[in-house]
Amino acid sequence: xxxxxxxxxxxxxxxxxxxxxxxxxxxxxxxxxxxxxxxxxxxxxxxxxxxxxxxxxxxxxxxxxxxxxxxxxxxxxxxxxxxxxxxxxxxxxxxxxxxxxxxxxxxxxxxxxxxxxxxxxxxxxxxxxxxxxxxxxxxxxxxxxxxxxxxxxxxxxxxxxxxxxxxxxxxxxxxxxxxxxxxxxxxxxxxxxxxxxxxxxxxxxxxxxxxxxxxxxxxxxxxxxxxxxxxxxxxxxxxxxxxxxxxxxxxxxxxxxxxxxxxxxxxxxxxxxxxxxxx
Amino acid sequence: xxxxxxxxxxxxxxxxxxxxxxxxxxxxxxxxxxxxxxxxxxxxxxxxxxxxxxxxxxxxxxxxxxxxxxxxxxxxxxxxxxxxxxxxxxxxxxxxxxxxxxxxxxxxxxxxxxxxxxxxxxxxxxxxxxxxxxxxxxxxxxxxxxxxxxxxxxxxxxxxxxxxxxxxxxxxxxxxxxxxxxxxxxxxxxxxxxxxxxxxxxxxxxxxxxxxxxxxxxxxxxxxxxxxxxxxxxxxxxxxxxxxxxxxxxxxxxxxxxxxxxxxxxxxxxxxxxxxxxxxxxxxxxxxxxxxxxxxxxxxxxxxxxxxxxxxxxxxxxxxxxxxxxxxxxxxxxxx
Lengths: 279, 336
Prior knowledge:
The complex is a heterodimer of chains A (about 280) and B (about 325). Chain A has about 280 residues and is mostly helical. In chain A, about 75% of the residues lie in helices and about 0% in strands. The model of chain A has no long low-confidence stretch (mean pLDDT about 85). In chain B, about 75% of the residues lie in helices and about 0% in strands. Chain B is built from 14 helices and no strands. In chain B, α5 runs antiparallel to α11 (about 245-280), α6 crosses α9 and α7 (about 145-160) crosses α9. At the A-B interface, α4, α5, α9, α10 and α11 of A face α1, α6, α7, α9 and α11 of B.
């Protein structure tokens, strides 16, 4: 806890990130029950209205309240981000730790697959996979997770490599503990720090990529409120009613920015060389 | 050097094999029978059989893969389901537009990103440093489509300075020689076309370059800060060299090398961004071609464009490695 406070005191940017994140989470948790509008209720008489006191961010082409859509869309977008990172974390860390701990041919095979996935621009592979699985939110999440998993595998492998030669791991091996216990109890737990930093940074990419898939029509399908899909759905009205597309776009920017601000500061904090500069 | 290139290419073989398997699997990942899914529920059995034959799905998987690789070796990426044209030709036709856009974006990103990184590192924790750090973080967090939208609204819709989308004014006719619009305009003496091409390039280039410039600025700042703490910098200072000499000849030179890797790696990410940028700006490159293929469920095109993107990325990483050797005598020595 003291460590956390010291970290926050010396990292103004992390605090800014945290404030934005807390504000966004507040908006999407408290907002929907308080809002007098439903995210999918049509009100054609009030379509494409400019921001007013009744509709703080205006209305879209179906007369739906843009702010309410953003609040509900944020629930989807942030849950998707966390979900994607969780899937990528589990897949990547499992294979990365296995590769680093086992070494030999298993390491070679796993790392060649990782290299091959990294040989694609992430968004291109995510788009191609999402297109193959079929356009849906779950498929988009899986596709993005596949492209993010190699980064976790790389970090996990290097952690496993450095931790598996530590005396306590050698002791555990000589005591005859089963491999899965050594991996989980010693290697995973002790290598968690950098993996958590990676997770924070990956959250930004996850949200950005899933929103991009949503924008291309490969993610969330209407009428579900999701920020990327909402930008794309309102694109045609942007010249007459800029707010309908810009507002959800700005929400994506703020969410990604908050994770990048926190992740960036955490990465500096965990880097001994940088940490000296901060202190 | 030659032996290094050969070793590097050999190391690439297993990776490229897995890349091929992934691209090959794309059609096979379609849930159920791909031919039935693609044609929809009302399709006749003859149509389904014809499409299965066209997609090579009526043979054992191993044979399908062998045919696919054999075709690739001859430059055959299959036929588009929509236009019926060879995918290779369609991609080659659109490649110059994407290259023109992305190469220009890289140049712009370098021109802006590196000086920003250097200036931030020279005065760490100054106001300039804080502002550029925040601006570059916004740059990497900004969805490409949002930036595109904002720029279009400001510079095309409200100010009317630049065209909203496309590659050239529809009132102009231009001859195609190389496929690069600006170059073609100059070669054929059609300067109006060349100027129109330049105007159309500004906004999409800015959108693509923003992400790379932001990443590069952040990276150069961080490596410069590391390098400026090294012993040889202290020695250079102790020798009484001018500050600009220390920063440019000792600091920047040693920070640029890792920056080349970042430019190479991020170039590929930028190509991914090109799909969004080209779609929004109606830029007739392979990014937009891929997007249209997704809309039309034109799988041979999706496979082809995915493979081309991967190939460009892999080639870039080899070029980066070689550049490293050319620029750093220590690396060159290790290569030889």
